[in-house]
Design a protein that fits this description.
Elements lengths: L2 H18 L1 E5 L2 E4 L5 H21 L2 H31 L4 E3 L1 H30 L1
Antiparallel strand pairs: 1-2, 1-3
Helix pairs in contact: 1-2, 1-4, 2-3, 3-4
Length: 130
Amino acid sequence: MTVADWTAGLSCVAAGIGAFLPWAKVAFISVSGAEGDGVIVVVVAAVALMLTAGFAARRKLWMAVLVTLCGIIIAFIALYYIGDIESLTDDSEGLVRVGEGLYLVLIAGIALTASAGVGIYRHRRASIVA
């Protein structure tokens, strides 16, 4: 297993953890991602983790491409909700703010996409040299 494989795996775990952390905070109340679309993040992260393990073992290009797609989906969900909560912040005079779970999901999605991209690059490079 390469560093990119480990990074992808850890990114999947981080996205799953971020889904259960607060996504929004209203005054003293926190709203977890698991109460909404955080479930989608958990499912996509679990699929990406299985594909990452498969790619590490078999080095099939299609697996790395699907892991990249999973990372993009995870990052997109986080960006959507960050933007949605930020728009509520303007109307609520600062009572609503983005929770740390969404930021963790965003960072994990970006890291997953990047590490899978490295896997694709190395796979393509190895097939050209061989």
